[in-house]
Structures are given as C-alpha cells and as structure tokens.
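Translate structure to sequence.
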C-alpha cells in the first residue's frame, strides 16, 4: 500500500544546501528499526548518536515501522511532543 501512495522526493531536494540543520539546536528522539533493509540499523544508531537523541528506542520492525508498530512509534512521538511543549 505504501508503494502506491508514497511519492518520490523532488530531485532538487538532493542539491539543496542546509546551512544550519535543526538537529544541532533542537532536541531529538529516535526510533531504530532493527529489521530495516532500507537504512542499516547500524547507520540508524550512528545517526541517533550524532544528533544526541534524548531517547532512542529500537523496535523489531522493518523500514515501515510506523505502519507495523504504530502504538510504540506514537508513544515516542507523544513523549517527545510533551517534553518540548513543557520546555
């Protein structure tokens, strides 16, 4: 189903320059999908460490973790939103 509704990113996205990425200044939370075959879980761990995520959870899920593990993903999002709203 996702293959039908997802759209490819604009080609210009890959040429855009980001001078001040938000992750350098804003708090982040990260969810790793341990069965992801699109982005290696090892690379996901590196990304989470680089942005100094306040919390990292690992789910036994594929790249489509939002579809296969919606309760856990939503809980992480709600936790992050609550922490930012209370700041």
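Result:
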């Amino acid at each position: 189903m996702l293959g039908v509704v997802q759209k490819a990113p604009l080609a210009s996205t890959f040429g855009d320059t980001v001078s001040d990425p938000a992750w350098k200044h804003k708090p982040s939370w990260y969810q790793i999908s341990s069965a992801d075959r699109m982005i290696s879980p090892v690379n996901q761990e590196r990304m989470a460490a680089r942005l100094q995520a306040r919390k990292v959870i690992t789910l036994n899920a594929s790249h489509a973790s939002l579809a296969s593990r919606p309760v856990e993903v939503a809980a992480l999002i709600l936790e992050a939103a609550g922490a930012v709203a209370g700041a």
